Design the sequence.
């Protein structure tokens, strides 16, 4: 069960306590679980750095990247109020299944 994210200050405090105390005790004194202590030691970057990295990039590549400039932008320019489902339907009619699982529902 996820809890509250730790702060940079908690991590710094934990790392200073860790020099004199076992992991379980240092984590308890810093106010988080032993498993969070393991993760902190495995990846010593501050929590704010990890959050920043997770926010940008990551994940899978954009499935519409190759179609965006060639097909989707011209559709939006010709019909500004076009809805996303209409664009997917148009791409399906052109025999270009972008999201086959979504279009079969």
Sequence:
């Amino acid at each position: 069960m996820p809890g509250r994210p730790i702060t940079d200050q908690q991590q710094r405090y934990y790392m200073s306590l860790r020099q004199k105390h076992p992991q379980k005790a240092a984590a308890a004194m810093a106010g988080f679980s032993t498993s969070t202590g393991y993760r902190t030691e495995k990846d010593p970057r501050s929590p704010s750095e990890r959050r920043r990295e997770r926010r940008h990039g990551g994940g899978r590549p954009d499935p519409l990247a190759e179609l965006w400039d060639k097909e989707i932008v011209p559709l939006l320019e010709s019909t500004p109020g076009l809805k996303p489902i209409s664009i997917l339907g148009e791409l399906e009619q052109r025999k270009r299944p972008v999201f086959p699982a979504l279009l079969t529902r």
Notes: The CA atoms of residues 64 and 81 lie 19 Å apart. The longest helix spans residues 65-78. DSSP finds seven helices and no strands in the chain.
